[in-house]
User: What shape does this take?
Amino acid sequence: MIECCPYPPYEGNEKRGIMEEALETGRPILETRCITKQFPRVLANDEISILLNKGEILSILGENGAGKSTLMNILYGLYRPTSGEIILKGKEISFSSPRDAIRAGLGMVHQHFMLVETLTVTENIILGSEPSKGGVIDYQLAKKQVLEISELYGLHVDPDEKIENLSVGLQQRVEILKALYRHAEILILDEPTAVLTPQEVEELFRVIRALRDKGVSIIIITHKLEEVMAISERVYILRRGKLSGEGDIKDLTKEELANMMVGRDVVLRVDKKGNGKKKEAVFFIEDLSVLKKGGNALLDSVKLDVSPGEIVGIAGVDGNGQSELSQAVMGLVKIDKGSIRLNGKEISTLSTRERIDEGISFVPSDRQRDGLVLEMSISDNIIIGRHDRKPFVRSAGRINHREIRKYAEKLAVDFDIRTPSVSVSAASLSGGNQQKVILAREFSRSPVFLLLNQPTRGLDVGAIEYIHSRIMEMKQKGAAILLVSLELEEIFALSDRILVIYEGQIVRELKTNETTDYEVGLYMTGGRKKGSLNDGK
Amino acid sequence: MTGNKTGTKVRSEREHMKKALDLISVLLLAAGAVYYLGGSFSGLAALSSGAALYLFNIYYFQGKEKTLSAVKKYLSRLIVPLIGIAAAVVSGAVIMLLTGYDPIESYTALFYGGFVKNWYVAVLNATPLIFTGLSIAFAFKAGLFNIGAEGQYYIGAMAGAWLGFKLELPPLIAIILVYAAGSFLASLWNFIPALLKVKTGAHEVITTMMFAHIARYLSPIFIRAFGGDPATSTHPYVTWELPESSWLLSFKSFIPDANYRLHTGILIAVAAAFFVSYVLENTKTGFEIKAVGFNKEAARVQGISVGKNIFIAMMFAGALAGMAGITQVLGLDHKLFENLQAGYGWNGISVALLASNNPVGVIFTSLLWGALDAGGQYMARTTHTPNSIVEIIKGIMLFLIVAKYIYIYAARLIKKKKGGGSV
Amino acid sequence: MSFLMFLNTDLLVATVRLSTPITLAALGATVCERAGVVNIAMEGIMIIGAFFAAVTAFYTGNPWLGLASGVLAGGIYSLIHAAAAISLHLDHVVSGAVLNILAFGITRYLMVLFFGHPGTSDAIPSFLGDYQFAVPLLSKIPVLGPVFFNQTPIIYISFILVIFLAWFLKHTRTGLHIRAAGEHPLALETIGVSVYKIKYLAVFISGLASGLAGAYLSIENNVSFTEGMTNGKGFIALAAMISGGWSAAGSFLSALFFGFADALQIRFQVFRIFHVPEELFIIFPYAATIIAVAGFVRRSRPPKADGVDFIIEKENE
Assistant: This one.
């Protein structure tokens, strides 16, 4: 069975000794040997052998699509490997479902939380392992157990609160509790910091270390170098389904890691040239409020402006009004108060259609839900919104298929959309290419104002670099750009000014080159709410 | 230089010839279809020669590969339906055997009756079905389920009868006006469901269904109020016969040996199918309807009004279902019966689903359904097998064709078996 | 001569009787949709249940056996919906519509097979309506007593089911799993509970309940089976569940409202208090249903993953 050697001789592997050393110390708890996973079209994992020691914090680093999640899903029993072995505490095992993995002491905190929002914390934690008698749940006991565990690990959370009322950080805590409740000895965290503020990240790291001290072994899956450097003791690097490196953190530099992850040197710094003198602003929002049905404000007296050739970043924790802000700008929600002006014209009373005509382009955060009609062709997706305009339509509302095709083919080249034909459905494209379709549509309209909501969500480094360069190109062309992003790195890389949004208010305005991510993080959590802009409730 | 010019000239001559041949094949197909639907089997010859010419055209001007790919394209669309039909026929035979009927005798009668002997009944059955099927298919394209097409059918029938009486106009004008006004009234029957869908999100499955039940009970009131025949003042109520100016042309007037009941409503239905297909594929309205149907959110972000398109789809669907009722009254019955419960609205769901909501496909599935019903009646008359076995066969057929995943599973199973040895 | 004279106890008794099939089907639908499976096949399942209850009661002479077979037939028939919607990933609404069509075909065929003619079956020798009994003490309560505590068996079962299912969803493991399956199925799957199994179970429960509703129509409220006797009640039940906010108690209250509309309609028809065509009365409950789903009372939202296809192993695609 084993043709592949347990410790594959990848190129330039000088650090092989570490593995052997680790083995000799006799503490390995989990090991994979030559795990291979073949999907119909891709080889997601190619002979991956890793080793986890008891009580250590291990990172698995790689880009989106490098095969990290596949590997973890194999470990967790969601997928079965095409070949290879998993050895847990010295015994070979095979999981046919997550239930087996849980029973064997594995716990997983997914990137997209596996929590039922309408249920309480307790219900979520006990789900699937309920203390019960004859099928009837003993809620008293359940609550007691939950409190005990959260006491033991110092993870406090109200057991009776519904998940939908908790912050993201607390939801993640519930996820960790869920694993601990099932007596997890090995905890896998999938991109755990993706949605957290720097402060919440620190808190998470504290929790992770505390867990390690209690004997839990931890695997962190991530694409963030800083995180690997900050928390883990050892790291494996995956690239295109293969193990491309490993080592002790203390022996590695950030640059080395980046190189092993991407296969070349990456500079995630965009050149912000052409900043020049600030021009007169063209886009204004004043006193904009959107109320929830109950009455509390989703957006509370927001005020901002954007000049041509300027990128303004909106930083904030997810769910603090970012989506309402973009919806309000696009006319997709009813606003309760305030004005939005473009080129001196009030647009808040216009329809979405008319706003687009005024020169607004919008890249929504959820490309599959809001950005594309997946079932329609690439060419239809490129012209949608202008499908009733010349030259795409002849008189009497007849569609001109030939013009559409010609135009789409040109843009597919311009925007490097990789597809055999523009007449295949948008669903058949990869995430990066789908995003390029949206970019092609929105950027080719030569917008005066460009609203970007998480333009690189879930994409790999190559696609991110490409999209960032196109955004800078639009800036150079003189578009006024508002960038909403949950990734502080992206905000810092692209924007000239940063506005921090918290609970529907713009709580602070900062110059990018005069602030730090730590400071922005503080404002993002309302930590240093200043009375200057909006006085609290 | 000159060589180049003659080259273009030759090419344009070829183009002209191709166009001419294409036109001939379309004309052959059209004429064949008219005659075949008129009950004359000579139409079949014209149909097949038209199809042959069409293929020959592709072969001659575009080569063998294009021809093969064209044939493949049509066959691949047919394969799942054909397997479904075959499987349903087999299941029907098993059921007949289990319940003590002779499947060979029954099927002989069923197919002979439906597709040969009483083919005109099949066409008559199919006519309203095409309209209701189109109605449901069109709404489906917008992501809506017009499950209550039956109700719009009643309204169309009532409006047709009423206007047929009231409009004392020359024949053609009367018919056009009845269709226009009647389908408008039927589309209004979907106004409240559309409004509620847009304003409060009330599900159209419930609202149109309830409106269908309401429409059903309105017909006796209507008949008594407008032109009820006093001789039949008890159930079931019937209206007077409509003036002949509002009757649809019968096939008999130009195909002498056609059945006297067979009317040209089927041609209107077929034309409607091609019209709906054109609207969906080639107009901006169709584009918007499909975008809304696939993904409301993305359509909204692009400034396409979801509400407007839901209205258009629901109203147009109502109008189409209404035309089924109008056609039935003007073409076949020439009067309105209270007992309208022919179920064309419900069966419209089946034919639309069978055709995967493809408007042109609806023509064929409606004819199939119509033939099965016609054959079922013939079978019940000539053998001991009850008519209702057809309902079961239809249900199984529908299930096997709609649940496409069955074939994915089957393909996977076959693959596994084949691949089992090598792995 | 006031029309208030109809607002008496009899009207309320009739309300309960007419609402029972709606209550039962709506309860089933509640469980089904809480697990994330949309079920518009109740109409068809009811007619299957009604038919098999009547046939069994007719041939055995025992209405209790009829009851059991009606419930079971409904359950079995609903499994086709489960298979189609869950395993075959067919759109739930489409699957339901197909099953409604198929159910009418099956019952028509079997009518001929068992009774030799379509339409209405022969009368069953003994029906559950004979087993009306008054609960001691409780039936003595004025108004409420005769309305709720002097009824026939399936009506009592429906009361018990309302309470049981409300408790079941809240307090049992299976109930919790059902609620989770309808909101976030992947969360359930990733902690090792089979979402498919839970969904199958929920659909089966709804099939049993709709089968019971059908049995009520043919062997308790009636003495024979008639084709099409459900007359849209399956869809009204769907409306009752929606306006009842996807909860057992809410479904019951909404069903009572629809039953009341129906009872009122019959009174109006019988006493001809308004001089309008009788059909205008018949359409009253249908109109009431439209008004109810129009969302004049809209507090709750459907389960998040209601009607959403769930595919576990994408890798096999």
Remarks:
- Chain A touches chain C at residues 39-40, 76, 78-79, 97-103, 108, 110, 113-119, 123-124, 127-130, 132, 135-137, 139, 178, 182 (CB under 8 Å).
- The first helix of chain A runs from residue 16 to 25.
- Chain A has a mean pLDDT of 85.
